[in-house]
Amino acid sequence: MPAPADLLTLGDAPFIRLTTFRRSGEPVGTTVWVARDGDSLVVFTPVGAGKLKRLRHTKRVQLVPSSRRGVVADDAQSVEAMAEIDSSESTLRHVSALLNKKYGVEYKLVMLVEKVFSRGSRERDVIRITTG
Question: Are the CB atoms for 42 and 128 separated by under 8 Å?
Answer without folding.
Answer: yes
